[in-house]
Design a protein that fits this description.
five-stranded mixed beta sheet; globular; Immunoglobulin-like; binds beta-D-glucopyranose; TIM Barrel; about 775 residues
């Protein structure tokens, strides 16, 4: 069917749809009728073409490129493209699909818009440290506004994989280690991307990934196996995927790893039974990059075709880059692959296109005027700066060294201080690095006209080893200096000697975390560590502005430096946001969503420690009690921890009743007072510890939080409602979401370590 035919069909459907949008049932019926009509005219090859997603841009995350050609689009063998940037380029390609293919079906254009488009927000791990679901939603909304103005209608986000292992580089892409917090972040991102309706041209379809359990990769090694049993899978990892699906996410990406010994993309239990039947997911499932090919690598089939059949029959709808689905016509004709599976997948993809309004106007996301108005707008940048300020975590601030005064001589030192391409952080596919400031420029702007003097020296490379540094700064973010380590160090020491205070901008380079960036050494990179030690010998106050996309080990720094700001990678406005925090325009309020270990050997590691035999509350060595002989088993900085320039006190914590029937509810009240001298935000955290249950439960698990802003001296009462829903868990026998009678410790506090407790008796 040519474009004209499609328009006629649309016209007919539009008459049919006079009362469209009145109710979803009617809308769904209209959509189904439209797709039925369309599919009745499609050949088998055209249907399979809809299931094919080749890469459109030059971001390649696997070794293989799919065989995309313009001719394939003309032949109707492509359903969508991803990581092609620019409204003009997208419009051109869309035109080929719409005007030159027989059916004229528009393409989906996807991209890894992970933490912003050109206006880049903090990495998802950093964003979660704001504990601000509104801010997270807003960041996704702005990302959608910008991306959709540039032709993109589908993002491969949110990544909601819970992770207990800082060795895994992709911990940067998720919301940390806690399933409750991760679920709230997942919902917020879906709401932000998709808004009230996908039909709005400023919203885009979300893709929840990586389903399922990818964050549990063995020993933090990328693309590896995961082993949580069902009980732990459901209680620790599955909730955020479900929360995102419940929030209406339009698509899901199958993970690279196996679940129950079967690769996720070919796992019928995972995709058909759990996701669709039990959770009621109505959207489509896309594979991860070339993962249909991985079926063979996993040894579960002997050819690409066989693997593709297994995946399609298991409920995978779209094949990213493998060219497996698109070649299935002979298998269908010969009865080795069912036509029902092809039809079901094709329908789901066409329905997604319908919901996005692509059949109404295939170019609705390619408006050059809108692009000019919204991308990197002042409004978006201001929001990104504000949100970045909420994400940084103040780990240490001895003698109130921070906020700094804008006076005297400040030495800014470190390889990340003037490293423009480093600012946005990993997975910033659409970034325009030359539009972003370096830390040095941010501080210079903040100090302008104040009389304070800023001196700068790079001081060291990121790492001594050039090859290792090239890996750490892959994608051309090369910031290596050819001078000798000694020459660089001497230059830094000489400016440091002239300064009243030193700001050290150090840590990971942007690509030291992210995909395929698993590491066993998560301490300060060697060259920077040595430089920091030399600087510390000068006896001047040092503020460490620490860049990282993962939890790192900061033992030496904690012991020897008076102030540490965990600035993560906070995006395009990171430099200004750092200046805002350092000079006190912004009072830091971020709190860790992953605890920081004392040693990499503690991984896997989570504050949500399940009860064990021979428990050890203190974490120190005691023979025949759970512990390490050579290091405390406690974190260096606990989950939920973060300082402010003011202080907060928790008083008057009580439960409205000490007994709660299973079908009843009780309130937990606590009064929080800002006891310092400046306005600040506090993240009030509610934990429970189910003392007796059929399944072993964690000593402490987050089940509520509230971010509040208090003026100096102000108090506020925070109230959490406790009921079965808030306190349930997946019991071990049937994995039902259940609360059982027994005692529950209810705890509130400023972090997972410093809590107060009241006992609640849950009765039948
Ligand atoms: C990653 C996905 C990403 C995809 C497309 C893969 O390697 O695992 O998270 O969405 O590439 O770029």
């Amino acid at each position: 069917m040519k474009r004209s035919g499609l328009i006629l069909l649309m016209g007919a459907m539009m008459i049919l749809s006079a009362c469209q949008k009145k109710n979803t049932a009617t809308e769904d019926a209209q959509m189904r009728a439209f797709v039925d009509q369309l599919m009745s005219q499609m050949t088998l090859e055209e249907k399979l073409g809809q299931l094919n997603l080749p890469v459109g841009g030059d971001i390649v995350t696997g070794g293989v490129h799919s065989s995309l050609s313009v001719e394939a689009i003309r032949q109707g063998k492509v359903g969508g493209l991803f990581n092609l940037k620019g409204a003009a380029a997208i419009r051109d390609v869309q035109r080929i699909a719409v005007e030159e293919s027989r059916m004229g079906i528009p393409l989906l254009f996807g991209m890894d818009v992970i933490h912003g488009y050109e206006t880049i927000f903090p990495l998802p791990l950093a964003l979660s440290c704001s504990w601000d679901t509104e801010a997270v939603e807003r960041s996704a909304q702005i990302a959608a506004r910008e991306a959709t103005a540039d032709g993109i209608c589908w993002t491969f986000s949110p990544m909601v994989d819970i992770c207990h292992d800082g060795r895994w580089g992709r911990i940067s892409e998720g919301s940390g280690e806690d399933p409750y917090l991760g679920s709230r972040m997942a919902e917020a991102m879906v709401r932000g991307y998709q808004g009230a309706s996908l039909a709005d041209s400023a919203t885009m379809m979300a893709c929840v990934k990586h389903f399922a359990l990818y964050g549990a990769v063995e020993a933090g090694r990328e693309y590896n196996n995961v082993y949580p049993d069902d009980y732990h899978a459901f209680n620790e990892y599955m909730q955020p995927y479900k929360a995102a699906v419940d929030a209406g996410a339009g698509s899901v990406m199958a993970a690279f790893n196996t679940v129950h010994g079967v690769p996720s993309m070919g796992n019928s239990w995972l995709l058909n039974d759990l996701l669709r039947e039990q959770w009621g997911f109505m959207g489509f499932v896309v594979s991860d990059y070339t993962s249909v090919r991985h079926m063979e690598e996993n040894g579960v089939c002997t050819s690409l075709e066989e693997g593709a059949i297994q995946c399609l029959e298991a409920g995978l709808d779209m094949d990213m880059v493998s060219d497996g689905f698109v070649a299935l016509a002979p298998a269908v004709r010969e009865g080795r692959c069912s036509m029902q599976a092809v039809d079901a997948a094709c329908r789901r993809i066409l329905e997604a296109k319908y919901k996005l309004g692509l059949f109404d106007d295939p170019y609705r996301y390619c408006d050059p005027l809108r692009r000019e108005a919204v991308i990197l707008s002042d409004e978006h940048r201001a929001e990104a700066r504000r949100i970045a300020g909420e994400c940084m975590v103040l780990l240490k601030n001895e003698d109130d060294l921070l906020p700094m005064q804008k006076k005297g001589t400040i030495a800014l030192i470190g390889p990340l201080a003037d490293a423009r391409n480093n600012m946005a952080g990993t997975w910033s596919v659409a970034a325009v690095h030359d539009r972003y400031k370096t830390v040095k420029e941010g501080l210079e702007d903040a100090l302008q006209g104040t009389g304070a003097r800023l001196l700068y020296a790079k001081g060291s490379n990121v790492l001594y080893d050039a090859r290792q540094e090239a890996i750490a700064t892959i994608f051309g973010h090369d910031i290596r200096d050819s001078r000798s380590a000694e020459a660089m160090r001497q230059e830094a020491l000489s400016i440091a000697r002239k300064a009243d205070v030193i700001i050290a901008a150090m840590g990971e380079a942007s690509e030291m975390s992210g995909e395929c960036a698993s590491r066993v050494n998560i301490e300060m990179p060697d060259a920077q560590h040595d430089l920091l030690q030399e600087l510390a010998k000068l006896g001047k106050p040092i503020v460490l502005v620490h860049f990282a996309g993962r939890p790192t080990v900061l033992n030496w720094e904690t012991e020897h430096l008076p102030a540490i700001l965990e600035s993560w990678f906070c995006g395009s406005e990171c430099a200004d946001a750092i200046a805002d925090v350092l000079f006190g325009e912004v009072n830091p309020s971020g709190k860790l969503t992953v605890q920081l270990p004392r040693h990499v050997g503690q991984y896997p590691f989570s504050y949500r420690q399940m009860r064990t035999s021979r428990p050890n509350e203190g974490g120190e060595f005691i023979k025949y009690i759970t512990c390490y002989a050579d290091v405390s088993s406690k974190p260096l900085y606990p989950f939920g921890y973060g300082l402010s320039y003011t202080t907060f006190e928790y008083t008057n914590f009580y439960l409205t009743d000490t007994i709660m029937p299973l079908d009843g509810s009780v309130e937990a009240h606590v009064t929080v007072t800002n006891t310092g001298s400046r306005t600040g935000s506090e993240i009030v955290q509610l934990y429970i510890g189910d003392l007796v249950a059929r399944g072993v439960r964690p000593y402490k698990e987050l089940r509520g939080f509230e971010r509040i802003n208090l003026a100096a001296g102000e108090s506020r009462e925070v109230v959490f409602t406790l009921d079965a829903d808030r306190m349930s868990y997946y019991e071990p026998e049937h994995l039902n979401w259940t609360l059982e009678p027994g005692d529950v410790a209810v705890m509130v506090g400023a972090n997972s370590r410093d809590t107060q407790m009241r006992l609640l008796h849950v009765v039948q």
